[in-house]
Amino acid sequence: MKISGKSTIDAPRDQVWEALNNMEVLARIVPGCERLEQVGENEYEGTVKIGIQSIKGTYSGKIRLEDIEPPRHYKLVAAGRSANGVVDGTGTVDLEELEDGKTLLTYGGDAQIGGTLASVGQRLIEGASKQLINQSLKALVEQIKQRNAPPAEAAAPAPAEETPEPATAAPEPAASSAPSAVAEAEQAAPAAAPEASTPTTTETPAAPAKAAPPSFERRTVVVPSDEQLKPESIMRGMVEDALQERPWVPWVFVAFLLGILFGRAGRK
Question: Where is the composition biased (Low complexity) (predicted)?
């Protein structure tokens, strides 16, 4: 199964690239994503629950990014498993900076489907996949808007309490301590001389070599239930997209209902 498409995003290319490489953003734009974990350099694992009937199920998958060329291109290799079947595929994402400050996102991929999913039908799976991708792109735009929104004004800090400065004792006259200081210095001078003449050296043990830290930071993002891209949100988005592409559909439905009502009235 092959799939491809384009989408214009109202944001600069650098911001789109940054969002596509942010785990917090990715976990919230993948439909039904419940958990996303980075397990290696540019390698991720996750759990996705999809509620669309033709591909309904809970999937455990792995994604690896390759051929990374910031901020314009990368290739992804994905593998998913569920009780309904398996999905293995590769895809590419390309970002082109437009003159008006927007970004043209072009995607393409090829997937192999096995198990029960293969019996659903290629057309149904292609249609469902395109709808899921479209809803993911809409969620990506919303995430970029939220990240660019100005932060709320911070509350004015409470005035600091004034603490009284501690009273300082009056300095003692210097004249009274001068003779005693001179006497102590004369007594200490002979004792200090021998110590200075016999310097001692101490060897410090070499510090043990530390292991090199990993080139990535292992992270896990668990998406709260109220922030997941749920099936009802996907279905609502699909209906909105269909109405935008075919604005005449509601009028056909209204005309159909009126025809039924007038037909019944005529029979009476």
Answer: 149-215
Helix axes 249-267, 231-245, angle to 10 degrees: 80
Alpha helices in the chain (DSSP H): 13-20, 23-29, 122-148, 174-197, 231-245, 249-267
CB atoms within 10 A of CB 38: 17
Give the domains, in start order, of the chain with CATH numbers.
2-148+218-229 (3.30.530.20)
Distance, in Å, from the CA atom of 245 to the CA atom of 256, rounded to the nearest integer, reads 20
48 forms beta bridges with 33, 59
Tokens in use for 263?
A: 């037909």
Residue 116 sits at φ, ψ, to 5 deg, of -60, -30
41-61 burial, b for 16+ CB within 10 Å, e for fewer?
A: eeebebbbbbebeebebebeb
**C-alpha angle 117/93/111, rounded to 5°?**
20
Do 51 and 31 touch, CB atoms closer than 8 A? no
* Nearest alpha-carbon partner for 74 in 110, 30, 111, 42: 42
pLDDT digits (tens, 9 = 90+) for 12-45: 999 999 999 999 999 999 888 999 999 999 999 9
Distance between CA 198 and CA 216 in Å, rounded? 52
Tokens describing residue 238 = 């699909």
CA 97 to chain CA mean position, Å: 22
Token representation of residue 231: 């099936």
Sole residue written with tokens 């940054």? 18
Report whether 33 contacts 217 (CB < 8 A). Answer: no
Type and span of the H or E element at 43: strand 43-50
As beta bridge partners, residue 33 has: 48
- Gap between the Cα atoms of 156 and 119, Å rounded: 62
pLDDT digits (tens, 9 = 90+) for 43-76: 999 999 886 666 778 889 999 999 999 999 999 9
